[in-house]
Design brief:
This protein is α+β, with helices and mostly antiparallel strands. The chain is 33% helix and 28% strand.
Length: 133
């Protein structure tokens, strides 16, 4: 990979596909994508930028209960993706979600982009960073 961020919808999806392919080719433990903090509205209880990890056909993310409901709605449009596990740690306000993603890199990239926009409420021009491959 030669670039690690993108803010245009088509460029982001291409970035995500390239990162998934690089992750698989390198047999790395996981792939991590984060949103640029500049694209977020500040709040006192802000947990930080949204992120997603991908490994072995599983998407891992943290979300609030409200975001979980949005995720469930989004998954209705991605039938090859299913929630495998929900963890609600006692010392955290949110939910850790593991989603099986039995799909090709293009479809996974589409899911990532939709996730950041529909679940986390980011604009179409949000900037995503591949921070680990």
């Amino acid at each position: 990979m030669t670039r690690f961020d993108a803010a245009d919808p088509a460029a982001r999806r291409t970035l995500f596909v390239d990162a998934i392919v690089a992750h698989r080719e390198r047999a790395s433990p996981f792939l991590t994508i984060e949103v640029d903090a500049a694209d977020l509205e500040e709040s006192e209880d802000d947990p930080g930028p949204p992120w997603v990890q991908f490994a072995d056909g599983v998407v891992n993310l943290d979300c609030t209960e409200d975001e979980l409901e949005s995720l469930k709605s989004l998954l209705a449009t991605f039938p090859a993706f299913k929630i495998d596990d929900l963890t609600r740690p006692e010392n955290a306000a949110g939910v850790n979600v593991r989603v099986s993603a039995k799909a090709d890199p293009n479809r996974i990239a589409q899911f990532f982009d939709a996730l950041f926009q529909e679940v986390y409420g980011l604009s179409e021009t949000y900037r995503a960073w591949v921070v680990a491959v």
